[in-house]
Write a structure and sequence with these properties.
The chain has 166 residues and is an alpha/beta fold. Helix content is 23%, strand content 26%. The strands form 2 sheets. The protein has a 5-stranded mixed β-sheet, covered by helices on one side. The chain has a 3-stranded mixed β-sheet with strand order 1-3-6. The structure holds cobalt (II) ion.
Length: 166
């Protein structure tokens, strides 16, 4: 978990550094944080509830988005230990395997295994909380991707398609 998050953070830091090095890029892009400064079409919000449901089954962003900012809101009231949700993105042909391995990984690992196929993942949150993850769309256009919650028992109901449109 720690090394995966570090890798994601490092990837974003490198992207931000690359943007900052371009004097013609707006500072709002280089300073992107928790969705602020990311173009509107590149900032997504999805919610999960106490009924073990996401409010959307399909998410998409245009390939012009270099960085996607995804915010997950838990609109319920149950604690993260009982009805925790996260938002995880992976290739469709890998997500079930990752979700099942996540159960074994346990809560301290955010119910996620160490797996290079995980493209992005938020923390696990409980009712009333929200969390944001930012990730690059590089190489994702045209891929068959699925988002899901890796909390034990949730992925079969809490999943949907993620598309980076060409
Ligand atoms: Co969940």
């Amino acid at each position: 978990m720690t090394s995966r998050k570090t890798a994601l953070s490092l990837r974003f830091a490198l992207a931000a550094a690359a943007l900052a090095a371009l004097p013609l890029m707006g500072s709002s892009v280089a300073m992107a944080e928790e969705g602020e400064g990311v173009p509107e079409e590149c900032a997504l919000t999805i919610s999960g509830d106490d009924q073990m449901q996401f409010d959307q089954k399909e998410l998409s962003v245009p390939s012009s988005c270099e960085t996607v900012s995804l915010t997950l809101e838990h609109t319920g009231s149950m604690d993260a230990s009982a009805m925790g949700h996260n938002w995880v993105l992976a290739p469709t042909d890998a997500y079930e395997e990752i979700a099942q391995a996540g159960m074994q990984a346990g809560p301290d690992a955010g119910y996620l295994p160490e797996d290079d196929r995980i493209i992005a993942a938020t923390d696990i949150i409980g009712g009333g909380e929200s969390t944001t993850v930012e990730f690059s769309t590089a190489d994702l256009a045209g891929q068959d991707l699925t988002f899901f919650c890796s909390f034990p028992g949730h992925y079969a109901m809490m999943n949907g398609t993620f598309t980076v449109t060409e």
